[in-house]
Amino acid sequence: MRRRYGYYWAKLCAVPVVCACGVAAFLIVGDSWWQLVIAAAFGIVFTQIGFLGHDAAHRQMFRSGKWNDWISLILGGLFIGMSYSWWQHKHTRHHANPNKIGSDPDVDLPVISFTPEQAARRRSLFARNVLARWVIANQGVFFFPILTLEGLSLHASSVRHMFSRGHIDHRWAEITFILVRIGGYLTLVFLVLSPGIACAFLGVQLGLFGFYMGMSFAPNHKGMPLVPPHLRLDFLRRQVMMSRNIRGNPLLDTAMGGLNYQIEHHLFPSMARPHLRRAAPIIRAYCSAHDVPYTQTGLFESYGIVLHYIDRVGLGERYPFECPLLTARQQGTIEVAKPTQR
Asked: Is the pLDDT of residue 339 over 70?
């Protein structure tokens, strides 16, 4: 649980240097279709900065909460144009109840159905639209292509959140950071590039950013058991049984920002990223000793599980997975809460 100040300071110092080098390369290449290579590089760099902001938001970097908050604000708002406060609210709810229906925002998306009830509602809504019903039934085909829109969605949700009602900590700092980042970035792109190349540049950068981000987060929980609204689980089972680890190596750890150790991250969200790999065998042994299912797969195997799961939900299968919660309930290790009367 000790801090890794050297590790994180090295990464934080590298962020402005790498971004400055990217802008310099952008200006040197000029109005050329070779800019699409620069756009792809920016997509990768912005995703890695997002992973770093994720670490700061989880208090992994510093002891001081204010330091972590401001690092997240600067990395998210000024470098990638995303609202830290919007993400924090959404992500906190996810960590509290991963894969719990009605509580986890990550299983309630506007396009892809992750529960049989969502798919049924959408089939009913488009009952007379043959094409829409076909798309719902074959949603696995469209899952990864839809991820290319995630980058644009993150920017839009951030801007909408910043100008919404309600209390937001550091609202004006976030508004300033995001407007400077998005406004300055668009101005630079359209000043240097002709309209056609500029649009292609933004399409590649935003598409790869969203795709990379989605491909890193999708294997973590999709296709794992869903928790009914009134089901109570102890903390260990709630975090371990709904999460999936990805086997890998130091290169994969870097590529996925440590998210491949999802079980360890959910159990110890403030643990510095480099320690997750060392903690994994300890936690796996503990789960084995206490008969708690610990799921670990290969990267491509996890993508296959996600697609298979999404397709079966779209086809209307009621139980698209074998749910270990049922077994745990029979063994008396979980409790179903009674609905609250209103």
From this structure: no
The pLDDT tens digits for 126-154 are 767 777 777 777 788 888 898 999 999 99
Contacts by 246-254 with C-beta closer than 8 Å and gap 24+? 246/219, 246/296, 246/297, 246/298, 246/299, 246/302, 247/296, 247/297, 247/298, 247/299, 248/299, 250/277, 252/299, 253/277
Could you give the percent of the chain with pLDDT greater than 70?
A: 92
Distances in Å between the alpha carbon of 312 and those of 28, 113, 123, 306? 49, 10, 14, 10
3-state secondary structure the chain: CCCCHHHHHHHHHHHHHHHHHHHHHHHHHCCCCCHHHHHHHHHHHHHHHHHHHHHHHCCCCCCCHHHHHHHHHHHHHHHCCCCHHHHHHHHHHHHHCCCECCCCHHHCCCCCCCCHHHHHHHHHHCCCCHHHHHHHHCHHHHHHHHHCCHHHHHHHHHHHHHCCCCCCCCHHHHHHHHHHHHHHHHHHHHHHCCHHHHHHHHHHHHHHHHHHHHHHHHHHCCCCCCECCCEECCHHHHHHCCCEEECCCHHHHHHCCCCCCHHHHHHCCCCCHHHHHHHHHHHHHHHHHCCCCCEEECHHHHHHHHHHHHHHHHCCCCCCCCCHHHHHHHCCCCEECCCCCC
Residue 340 has pLDDT above 70, yes or no: no
What is the value of pTM for the model shown?
0.89
d(CA 257, CA 287): 24
